[in-house]
Design brief:
157 residues; mainly alpha; Arc Repressor Mutant, subunit A; 3-stranded antiparallel β-sheet; 8 helices; 3 strands
């Protein structure tokens, strides 16, 4: 840690740094769990889980995409993504289609019902923003910090 750390964590002995309250990963995990609860409630009427909502958001934004592209955007591997997409397909929200030129490649298309679901999902982001108790500016700043953190950890890992 650098000496510019606002709480002076860099001056603490290693044994003190080992305390749970000093673990940024724990703070992120707790926030993630809290978000999960808020999203569960916000998505209940849509019949989507949070990971399914993310996949639908990618398709609403970009249209039909190969599974690999969806996985890259969501930072999910195919072992996690494939069952999620199968459930969305069973629900009638997407259609998976093998590429003619490469049987290994599967493209996911939102169905008419999947596309229509977007309209019902429009209030979700504002309700999540309201639940954070943060301003739009604070959320944008937090996203920037988390983006830098994700990039740094990706390089370190």
């Amino acid at each position: 840690m650098t000496s510019s750390t606002p709480t002076g964590l860099d001056d603490l002995p290693d044994a003190e740094l080992l305390k749970l309250d000093h673990q940024v990963c724990f703070s992120l995990q707790a926030a993630s769990r809290a978000f999960g609860g808020v999203y569960r409630e916000a998505l209940r009427d849509l019949g989507l889980t949070y990971p399914q909502y993310l996949a639908m958001m990618v398709l609403w934004e970009h249209g039909p995409l190969p599974v690999k592209s969806i996985g890259e955007r969501l930072h999910l591997d195919s072992g996690t993504l494939s069952p999620l997409l199968k459930r969305l397909e069973s629900a009638g929200l997407v259609r998976r289609e093998r590429a003619r030129e490469d049987e290994r490649s599967v493209t996911v298309h939102p169905t008419e019902a999947g596309t229509a679901l977007r309209e019902r999902a429009l209030p979700v982001p504002r309700s999540i923003l309201a639940a954070t108790g943060m301003s739009v500016e604070e959320v944008v700043a937090l996203q920037a910090v988390l983006g830098r953190l994700t990039t740094a950890l990706g390089r370190a890992g």
